[in-house]
Amino acid sequence: MKVNKKTTLSGEWAKIKEDIDNGNIITIKNEGEVISGDYGDRNVFKVETKNGEKLLSFNQTSVNYLIDVYGDETAQWIGKKIKVWVVKSNVGGKIRNIAYLTAPDWIETNEGFSSPTEGETGIPTIEDEGEQTPY
Question: Which three-class secondary structure string do you get for the chain?
């Protein structure tokens, strides 16, 4: 029988809608660790939330965003600010709140989330509260 080693971290886990919520800016406090679990590897980081330091698992979509902004060496992410986006998604047949993480300057558009500089590539940015460019 093959057994898997489980690694645990000490500390409290960040709870969506309690410790982190849509639009919150949080700070990355360490370079993270890869933790193996029942559903595969997870990238877990210590973050500063509105309720103190907590552990947060960064999903791969969030990791990809952060690589684009801060580079692929997580030691360089320490002290960086990130923005939380809470969206509802179907996970295992249940609708759950999922946290996605981006650079703090990202905005929500009709098409989803984008960096303000991505407007040049066809993703709209919100320049003012007036009319938006039609597609």
Answer: CCCCCCCCCCCCECCECCCECCCCEEEECCCCEEEEECCEEEEEEEEEECCEEEEEEECHHHHHHHHHHHCCCHHHHCCCEEEEEEEEEEECCEEEEEEEEECCCCEEECCEEECHHHHHHCCCCCCCCCCCCCC
